[in-house]
Amino acid sequence: xxxxxxxxxVMISAKAIAARIEELCEEIQTEFGNTDKLVVVGLLRGSFVxxxxxxRELDLPIEVDFLEASSYGDAMESSREVRILKDLRGAIExxxxxxxxxxxxxxxxxxxxxxxxxxxxxxxxxxxxxxDKPSRREVDFRSDWIGFEIxxxxxxxxxxxxxxxxxxxxxxxxxxxxxxx
Length: 181
Ligand code: 5GP
Ligand code: MG
Ligand code: MG
What we know:
Elements: E1 6-12, H1 14-32, E2 38-44, H2 48-57, E3 62-69, E4 84-86, E5 96-104, H3 108-118, E6 124-132, E7 145-149, E8 155-156, E9 172-177
Parallel strand pairs: 2-3, 2-5, 5-6, 6-7
Antiparallel strand pairs: 1-9, 3-4, 8-9
The structure holds guanosine-5'-monophosphate (5GP) and magnesium ion (2 copies).
One magnesium ion binds at residues 46, 71-72, 161.
């Protein structure tokens, strides 16, 4: 896919993200109480910045694991078929599990991943996504916690890429193409 020229407009500032993460962690701590068996599962690669900030704000004993599911590749089209490219290292049976995702878009990815993990009999399974695009949903899936609802815009930054670039931006930005393509 050739790259059309684009600029990135700030949609959610680093400060707003940090403030929201503080609120979310209060709720997560309340939900998981004094668990001593919480596994925080990051979906690679888009959630790596979010999970890093989230776990440092969580005042709970946790373990961290990662799972990679197929998603966009280098294009902007979503794929309906979800494949597991990299599975968890650890077993989650009897554990409390929090799945951390960057964006819920059509819902296929988190829907598939949470069903898969549920089949391994965790004690409790919850999910959190930084961003939610409810207008794009194709399957009936709702994350337990959402950072921000956003409109149907293609976003980058804070771990989220466009063709593998822009993951290192500290804010969520929206891609705006500057020429007709
Ligand atoms: P879903 O399976 O819910 O359609 O898609 C979830 C995945 O699609 C996200 O984890 C993310 O990787 C990708 N995605 C959805 N919206 C966007 C977006 O605006 N920008 C980027 N870079 N990826 C997106
Ligand atoms: Mg993703
Ligand atoms: Mg991607």
